[in-house]
Fold each of these.
Amino acid sequence: MAPLPLHTAGPYVAGAYIAFFLIVLIYVAIMASKLTRSERTLTELTERVEQRQRGEEDDG
Amino acid sequence: MYGKGLRPLSLITAASVALTLVAALYWAPNDAYLGFLQKIFYVHVPLAILTLCGFVAAGLMAIMHLRTRDSRWDMRSYVAIHISLIFGVTVLITGSIWARGAWGHWWVWQDPTLVSFLLVMLLYATYQPLRFAIEDPELQARYASVFAVTAGAFVPICFIVVRLAPGYVHPRTLSNINGNLPGRMQVVFYLAMISMTLLWVTLWRFEMTAKHVAAQIRRLRGLLGEEDDAQPVRRSAAPSLTHAGSPS
């Protein structure tokens, strides 16, 4: 069997590499959005803990 | 802890993947038999090897969980299976594309390599539903670990049986008889192996960081007394870290 010419094999190779990068990109995007949300929540919670600590110190 | 050093690791991974891509497309010579189509091999084969290694690694982590009862090992095993499943889906897609170009078919049911890989994937596809079906977190973690150990042991057995199979159409990549790679192809293949390993490790650490942060948030909420007792506990397939605050 003769090797496929570039113009025939090219779309297959491009398709495979695009599929790989797309899957990794989608995964990273989902994880990054989750991490951003978590970071925001963590900041809010930390602020609330600090407020509570300040309140306790004022009471004391 | 898991987020430490993640940024430089991500940068190194991105650089090595980019280097692999350039080397595979421009530096590695075209295959005499398959021509340019063979370039798919540099992403497909390392991903397949890493998928199977990831499943075995998850099994080893599950053994650690069963031995120590430390929920962090369960989390590590869970994330390893998750990343390996993602890699496995990529293997199936890139493999099908390659098969279409090389054989004229998207899938060949007669080939033991293809079918056994699909079987392994289908086996691991039941991991999440299994976890979700068990409500008690302790029991869920234990059953999931037993599954990960059993399935992890099945992976190398399956691999060896397939290598011994006489009738196959799928090419053998690292065989001593007729599959060894010449010069630059071999260099690019090992480069691809390194970069895909780095990618697996980076994604694993990325997800571990996210899970760890989520566990810390739950712990903080608990300390603040924000947990609503009236609300039913949401069932989840994801493990719950009971040592979220302790260093890993």
Note: Chain B has one domain: 6-171+182-223.
Amino acid sequence: MLLKSVNYVRPESVSEALGILSSNEGAAPLAGGQSLTNVLKHRVASVDLLVDISALSELRTITRMTDGSIEVGACATYDEIDHSPDVRAGHDILAREASHIEDQQIRNRGTIGGNCCLSDPTNNLPPLLVALDATMNIRAAAGSREVAAEDFFKGYFLTALEPGELLVSITIPPIPVGAGAGYVSLSVAADSKTIVRAAARVRVNGVIEEARVVLARVASVPIRHYAMEEALRGVAPTTESVRAAAELIGSDVEPIADGHGSSEYRREMARVVARRAVLAAIEEGGRK
Amino acid sequence: MTEQGTTHVIEVTINGQLYSRTVEARQLLVHFLRDTLDLTGTHIGCDTGSCGACSIILNGKLVKSCMMLAPQADGAVIETVEGLAQNGELNPLQESFSRNHGLQCGYCTPGMLMAGTYLLRENSNPTEEEVRRGIKGNICRCTGYVNIVQSIMDVAGGHGPEQAEGMVGEEQR
């Protein structure tokens, strides 16, 4: 397949990449390229200059901080995350879910930053990062800023990134004491496109003290279901109480219909995966 | 910094041999291998990163060569299916594909061999499920997966009793 003629540059530092991105209107960062390459083949987006950031070592580091949080470079691949002892040490769920993205070839190239910046509603990591209360660290030539994962995803293929900005890393706080995380997908096939999924982080101290419940593929971006979170607060961590809270997922959620399911089917399945994700989070928290 | 431009001079080591060529930035790596270097062992099945027929090992990592641009491979060490046989002799994995009828039409075979090679390097004694997950990115449109999985299991050493009996049967024939 022949692509449209394109310029390519491989900068040697993030600063250099930011300079190029800010001074070239038609420039786009190229990370793992596992989506962008197909975009170029199909000519659905016009890119004049590809700024290849995939080899920048400063974007590939994974660091465990003294407070137990973890900072993952935007160009860390799914496979690197899967095999990182630092990720496994405190954020096993991130490694586990990274290991279930598509296939080995894609995991060897695809990056956590690309997974987020594409903002495809079927992507695996955005709902998990929202559930884990991650912070997106953004840099531009003029300076840097932080955006909560919850505020980063703006719509189909749309994020909070402004032109010239680059997502450089993602900070995930430690899973609180007594808390666990859960992630459940209903997918077309194993490790493939999701029909609906839920991610949760739940802290239990006798009763459920705090719950973050995130639904994906019921809207253009991952959404927290605040009514379910509120209903879980203060109740016993039992199957019955979680089931009752999940029943609050109702007409407030308007999923799309497609070949894999009607809107009503997705809504019904959203209740199921949300319940299972919260129960998985409770179980994980109890094991620690 | 690699200078900005629509053409680039790249140096790539493929199966131990160094190649230096001028490429267009828009050229897919698989086209560089097949059209520019005439290394046609690597196949193109789907052109969208779905089928894995173009799988190669780049800097030790299994990748789909239709999902990369040629200039991205500058400085890389690449292994393709042409590098598996040594001195005209099939390597043990290739022998196993032959012995276990792991090829039907053969179109997916280069990608399957590279995925199998990578899998066995990472995990010398995989379970059947690990083999199936390891080749998840490779599609066989003849749907001959059973024999492909068995071909990989057979050289892995950790084959179960069923496969062992099958092997004996093969040898007796």
Note: Residues 40 and 107 of chain A are 20 Å apart (CA to CA).
